[in-house]
Amino acid sequence: DGGITQSPKYLFRKEGQNVTLSCEQNLNHDAMYWYRQDPGQGLRLIYYSQIVNDFQKGDIAEGYSVSREKKESFPLTVTSAQKNPTAFYLCASSISSGLEQYFGPGTRLTVT
Amino acid sequence: AQKVTQAQTEISVVEKEDVTLDCVYETRDTTYYLFWYKQPPSGELVFLIRRNSFDEQNEISGRYSWNFQKSTSSFNFTITASQVVDSAVYFCALHTGANSKLTFGKGITLSVRP
Questions:
Q1: CA nearest to A102 within chain B
Q2: Contact check, Cβ <8 Å, B106/A97
Q3: Contact at 8 Å (CB) between A51 and A69?
Q4: Taking a contact as any Cβ pair under 8 Å apart, which residues of chain B between 71 and 100 contact chain A?
Q5: pLDDT category, A22, cuts 50, 70, 90?
Q6: Is the peptide bond before B40 cis (omega within 30 degrees of 0)?
Q7: What is the pLDDT of residues A35-73, one digit of tens each?
Q8: Which of A90, B45, B96, B101 supports an S-S bond with B32, CB 3.0-4.6 Å?
C-alpha cells in the first residue's frame, strides 16, 4: 500500500541529545514537509522540500535540520539547540507544491 | 500575509445533530487553495477536500458539505447527522501561489456524544 511512514511512534530523549525522526513515502511525491504540533495549536511548518537535494526553512526552523538525499526520504533532526523540542511531529508529502498534502501517523517526541 | 481563523475551539453535539465548523481566511492573492483536514485521536491528519479560489461551487460528499463564499472569505464545513466517529480535530488550511506552504488554523475539536 502506498503511504507515508514515520518511525518511531513514540520517542524519548534526554535534554542535550540530538535525535533524528524518520519519514519515508512511497507515493512518488516530489514535495515533502515537516510540521510541529503543540497542544491546542495548529500545525507549524518546520522545513519543506520541493525536490531532491533542495529544502527551505519554514516558520520555525531554528534548532532543526533536514536532508533530502532521496525522493522517498526526508529525515528531521531535532538538535540540542531546539529550546522546547517536546511535541508531536508530522511529516507530509504532496505530488507538487499547492496540492493536497498527505500525512504520516506522526512521532511524539518527549525530551526530559 | 496569509491567515486562517477558526474561531470555534471546541464543539460538542449529540449524535444525529447537524454541526457547522467555521473557517475564515485572509490573503491578498487572487489564486489560492483551501483545504479541510480531519485529525482523529490517532493523530494522523486525513485530507477531506481541496477547493481553488475560482470555484465557488458548494460541494457535498455523503454527510459532509462545504460552503465556499469569497465575499465573506469563508469556507465552512457542515456535517449532517453527526456520528460518534466524526469526533476529531478539524483543521482548515490555506495555500497561496506566493509560497509553497500551507497555513493552518488552530483547529476545532468536535465531540459527538452518543
A1: B47
A2: no
A3: no
A4: 91, 95, 97, 100
A5: very high
A6: no
A7: 999 987 789 999 999 999 999 999 999 999 999 999 999
A8: B96
